[in-house]
Amino acid sequence: MGNAGSIARACGVVGAGGAGFPTHVKLSAKAEVFAVNAAECEPLLYKDQTILEEALPTFTEGLMMCAEAVGATRVLVGIKEKHREVIERLRDGLPPGVDVCPLRDTYPSGDEHILVYDTTGRTVPKGGIPLDVGVVVNNVETILNVGAQKPVTEKWLTVSGAIPEALSGKVPLGITLLDVLRAAGAPTEGMGFIVNGPMMGFVTADLLQPVTKTTSGILVLPAGHSLLQRKGRSAQAVHKIAYTCDQCMRCSDFCPRDLLGHIVKPHKAMISVGFSPDEATAWQKTALYCCECALCTLYACPEDLDPFRVMVESKRALAAKGVRPLKEAAEPIPMYDYRRTPTSMLVRRLDLDRFMAPHRFADFNLHPKKLTLPLKQHAGVPARAVVKAGDRVAAGGLLADIPEGALGAKIFSPLAARVLSVDAQAIRVEVA
Ligand code: SF4
Ligand code: SF4
């Protein structure tokens, strides 16, 4: 593991834009290309752009450390062409040789497989990862955290939606969503909330849950907004309406992984609903290659059905039966360029265009009294607590470590604090 990998491990850095994959493991690979995912394709999230505006020197430091760690001979930043000012800053501020690659404003241009194809022309195999074609991808905040070279104790996020202006800034890990919303001046009465973006995020009513290393944003919407209803459907309701699928195939036609030639057919999974488990399995197999972008449900389907949820369910069911994706070479279909989904049309379809407000950096500067640090904020196994109730810990002090030989990430105390409790799920601390 190179220097950046050791730092990432020592500081508890994980992928800040998705499932929280431990960064030190990614950086232990060797690859020809190191690609920054700055696409930020979820509508109404702006924190990656804000990082590039507010913290470019630290990001740049992290970028060069990561590129060196994997031995990359090409370094690139994939960012939407609409961010002209940020692109200019990057071209002025990044070291010579770093390619800034403008991307079309489509969803999901931040899907790793799509990003790799759009920036390098290489097609990640079906069932594979970018490393299979010599590329390591990391997102903006992850690279920033490597460049900072200190324990990860803060999270950048965006608060947007039904508020006068969208705000992006950093908050201590473990703070409640409610405290963040209050600091942003967001209304909470008569509102609904989506954590991590309108497409791949989840609806929650629990505002006392903590911000974790993978929280990207909080979207505030009026209660009853169609997106809250569609994302909040019960599994029973999803199945009930699935019977009305007329097999028009629009869900498969727009599927980004199908466009890449991975043969992902949500309309087939829709047939499986209600069949016997064995017959259903035969229809569901393409779900193994779904990236869970939700485009099929939230954009493509004209009947307001939920092929995305059926695909996710199918994927889990297949995994439980031990069915694994097969790695196979793929080629994008000829319609790849023409069937991409423009963000502007997606935003209208989601009824979010009225919330496309101005956005800016906010210095939240929050000092909560208590923090809750879940032991699992990353892919892999939960971290193992190294403190007990009553212990005192300094700001940046270690709370939980990676179990020997396991995949995981360390967890640190954002502020000087006294440990209140430790259980299998989380460490709770009272700020000193
Ligand atoms: S969620 Fe739907 S559109 Fe997205 S990859 Fe899966 S099947 Fe395709
Ligand atoms: S788009 Fe909707 S109606 Fe058409 S095949 Fe897919 S799920 Fe069925």
Describe the structure.
- With 432 residues, the chain is of the alpha/beta class.
- It has four domains: 3-148, NADH-ubiquinone oxidoreductase 51kDa subunit (Rossmann fold, 3-Layer(aba) Sandwich), CATH 3.40.50.11540; 153-225 and 351-367, Ubiquitin-like (UB roll) (Roll), CATH 3.10.20; 235-341, no CATH class; 369-432, OB fold (Dihydrolipoamide Acetyltransferase, E2P), CATH 2.40.50.
- 31% of the residues lie in helices and 20% in strands.
- It contains 17 helices and 19 strands.
- Strands 9-8-10-6-7-12 form a six-stranded mixed beta sheet, sandwiched between helices.
- Helix 4 packs across helix 7 (140-148), helix 13 packs antiparallel against helix 14 and helix 13 crosses helix 16.
- The chain is globular.
- The chain binds iron/sulfur cluster (2 copies).
- One iron/sulfur cluster binds at residues 255-257, 264, 266, 290-296, 307-308, 311.
Any descriptors?
six-stranded mixed β-sheet, alpha/beta, globular, 17 helices, binds iron/sulfur cluster, Ubiquitin-like (UB roll), 432 residues, Rossmann fold, 4 domains, single chain, 31% helix
